[in-house]
Write a structure and sequence with these properties.
10 helices; about 45% helix; globular; 3-stranded parallel beta sheet; alpha/beta; about 230 residues
């Protein structure tokens, strides 16, 4: 028996559809699976996904990974685990808040990128269910009008262009990475999780050491202070 409780699909920044992910899980003998897309329950909008999982003998757990930012502009992702939580209006409201925040992020980031002469097709970006940095980067890299900008600014031949663009342009402290948007703090999301008798788990902690300049002891203390489980 195997379980995987942190997976993404094409509903956020994953490569597989929810149904394709279930098929891969079956091939790898995963019996318990959670699709934890970023800030959305869209993978579960189709109720047939549960019966499809059941037919594969997979227990599908509808959870989510929430984006947060503290008062020092440090970003953290919190996994929200609880029973039947996708039926709670507070979770739906939190997802809706993040949907608008991501639209705001994309619009403001696009405006900043244009100041540096990147061509940005905002309409193409906003068509996606959940807007991520990956989608913004892919939209720009795939646009032939950016060919000369790519040749000038993305010169690391050992790294994919999309990764270069994200790391060089739209993460915090890069030219277009410091965009102010209305997203919950870690403490706010954790309190909401606990109010619904859920469990709050910090996703991929090692990333914050590089991204936020945290060391491990500081990170643990900060998360305990916020109330992480």
């Amino acid at each position: 028996m195997y379980g995987d409780f942190h997976c993404h699909t094409t509903m956020s920044d994953g490569a597989l559809t929810p149904y394709e992910l279930l098929e891969v899980a079956k091939k790898n003998k995963v019996s318990h699976l959670s699709i934890t897309d970023h800030d959305t329950l869209a993978a579960y909008n189709d109720n047939l996904i549960f019966s499809y999982a059941k037919n594969l003998w997979i227990t599908l757990l509808p959870w989510v990974e929430f984006s947060t930012m503290d008062t020092q502009n440090r970003r953290y992702h919190i996994l929200w685990y609880s029973e039947n939580f996708h039926q709670d209006p507070r979770i739906i409201a939190a997802c809706e808040r993040m949907k608008h925040a991501r639209i705001d992020f994309a619009t403001k980031t696009a405006d900043l990128l244009r100041e540096y002469w990147w061509v940005v097709n905002t309409d193409s970006i906003l068509r996606h269910t959940v807007i991520t940095k990956l989608i913004i980067a892919k939209t720009i890299i795939d646009d032939d009008r950016n060919t000369s900008m790519i040749a000038k600014h993305l010169t690391n031949t050992n790294k994919p262009l999309i990764s270069q663009f994200i790391e060089d342009w739209i993460i915090p402290w890069k030219p277009c990475g410091n965009v102010n948007i209305d997203i919950p703090t870690p403490a706010e999301i954790i309190q909401t999780i606990h109010a619904w008798w859920g469990v709050a788990v910090l996703a991929h902690p090692s990333e914050y050491i590089a991204m936020n300049g945290d060391n491990l002891d500081e990170l643990v203390k900060r998360m305990v202070w916020y109330g992480i489980d």
